[in-house]
Structure formats: C-alpha cells, structure tokens
Description:
162 residues, mainly alpha, 0% strand, binds zinc ion
Amino acid sequence: MFYVGNRVACGVLLKRITHVVFAAALTAALNLWTIKGGALYTFIAIASSIAPDVDLGKYHRKLLHNIFAWMFLVVFLQITAPYLGLEGYYVFVSVTIGWLSHIFLDSLTKKGVALLYPFSRKFYGLRIFSGDNLAVNVLFIILSLLVLIRYAFTLITALISS
Ligand SMILES: [Zn+2]
C-alpha cells in the first residue's frame, strides 16, 4: 500500500517537475529574465505551469485544462495587473507560457485534455505517452535544462563582457 502510494506521489512530483522546468525553459527562450521584474514574471510563468492541476478529482483535465479558463484568467489579470503594479503585457505572456505549456504537455499524454470544456467534454491531444512515463518526462526535463543552462551561460557571458 505504501509502495503504491509512494509511486503515485513520485509520478505526480515527476510530472510537476516536468511542467515547471519546461515552462522555465520557455521563459528563457523568450528572454523573459532580463526585463524589468523578470524574476517575478518568471515566477508567475512557473506558478501558472502547475496551477491547472488544481482541478483534481471529478473535473480533472476539464475545468482548468481548457482554452476558456486560460482566456478568462488572462482577461481578469489584464484588468487587475495595473492595480498590482504589474505590466499587463508581461503578465499575459508569463501566464500564457505556464498555462498553455501545461495544457500542451498534458495533451501529449494518453488521457488528453478537454480543450473546449465546458462546451465540449471531448478530450483532445496527440495522446502518445502515459503521463508518468519516466523516459519521456526525463527527456523533457533534460532538454529544458539544456535550454536553461545555455541561457544562463549567455547571461553570465554578457555580464562578464560588459
Ligand atoms: Zn494537468
């Protein structure tokens, strides 16, 4: 029993790491770190990359794993961002990176995502891998880390030469 629970917990952790590292790599690829408040926007992107999984239970991969939840969220944040002292455009970019990269990765898994929920309950995606496929998760993590290391190296080089 403990073993099964432990395995499930490991699988969830692995998927969470994959979402976080993949979103972080996208923020690096889009050069988000160097803008004013870059650390905060990177944090928002990373938080957004794990936030859709709040819809666990009966509505998992439906309630928050669809484009309408993302649209609602970005519109809401566009309105509230100025009151929080944030740049609306970068809030949009960072939430979009996190949220849509999460939906993209989940859409590769066998379950797919209910992309058009609540208008359709159909699950979409390439649906190739099992979500807790160790090899695929590790591959995404390694590729993302390579992007992050390359970006960090570029930043350090620029810092040294300036
Ligand atoms: Zn998910």
